[in-house]
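Before relying on records like the one below, remember that each one covers exactly one chain. Contacts with other chains, cofactors or solvent are not represented anywhere in the record.
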Amino acid sequence: MASILDVINLNIGIESPVIATEALGKVLIVGSNLAFAAVLVKEYSSAAELLADDDAGLTSTDYEYLAAARLMGQAFRPATFLAGKLGTMTAQVDNVACGATPGDGHYIVTINGTAFDYNASSKTAGEIIAALVGLINAGSEPVTAADKTEDMDLTADVAGIPFTCSVTSPGSKLTLTHPTANAGYFESLDAILAENPDWWGLCIESRASGNIKEAARWIDGNRPRVGFFQSSEAAILTSASTDVASVLKGLAYVGCHTRYFSDDDVPAVEAMVGLKVACDPDESSTTWDHATLAGVTPDELTTAEQGYALGKYAGIYVEDPDGIGATFGGKVAAGHYIDSVVSRDWLEVRLAEDVRGLFRRASNRNSKVPYDDEGIGKVAGVVRSRLTRGEEIGHFMKHESTVTFPRRADVDQADVDARTLTGSFSAVLEGAIHTTTITGTLTTSLG
């Protein structure tokens, strides 16, 4: 059987994780319609409260309200949610200049890893820039080059989607500056996090692939949080490999789930998140498949389309054989089931908290956890207790967890001097049954 360490790597220290205990069940909705002036994020207990907040400045047709209404309108729902303001989307602008009296050789501008190479011979700075502008604009990178005689501006085609750029040239005649920084979901999430880090799930207004990728990139660097994204990109339902679900699958992000839904204006993924985060991971565990969503009409997808989406770890919402709407494909981009990621995040948050608590209680008694077999046993006991609780809740299989810590005599002196203790554990994810194969025999004989 697969252990949680085999499925999702954990490396727990007393300084991690970077979210608070109460944040595990909290969802952040990020949108562009919020009118907050003094803050970037606020917490609400209902969609009606959000709509009535003059500071938010929303109408009943704005994404933030519609998302909150679906999030909080399920059979089970979280106690509160957060609404975060998306900052102004700004297109990145880089400037490339060519110095006077350039020498012969290769003048190269590299954008997003694609090299635009002009081999100059007896050319002026203006001629070199003009040639590079032509090469860049004839290429496929999402950047537009504007000739300014002896320099050029490179402007991102889509505000909020950054690009990378570097230059090489004979005698370092090409120079690169960055007059306008990109501003998009990544930067907005940084700002929101700085103001309020106490949340776990993320939903965003945009259904555009570029913005989803940026938000996913941010989530990957700010685990243990999970982003839940919705896309109507038709290529998800085909064998294509460049759609957003395929790209995120290729990146194997543990903290990102993409859900295909045909109508961008219906917050289907927000409905699913609202229903499922209502399950308190301190009390129980739930699967994210086979769930019926209130206020969401199922998509009509062919068997082939469903197969393509699920193969890319993109979730779908369709009718099951009984004609009832149900969620399928509850996996993150790395291929793990969402409930497994919830169990992993719960363990990371709670176990780090437990160990910190052990040290804090000892110090507050003007004592310590000694670096001897007894002290090591106390740390091991904290780990064992948390795993046992996880077994009782339904995160892990009962009686399958193991904890291994060394005796003091077997610890390297360098670790003792650094006051660092290293141990390990193994726990088996309980999982859930999603499909069955049932065989039987019918006869006409009663004997």
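Residues 4-8 have pLDDT under 50 and may be disordered.
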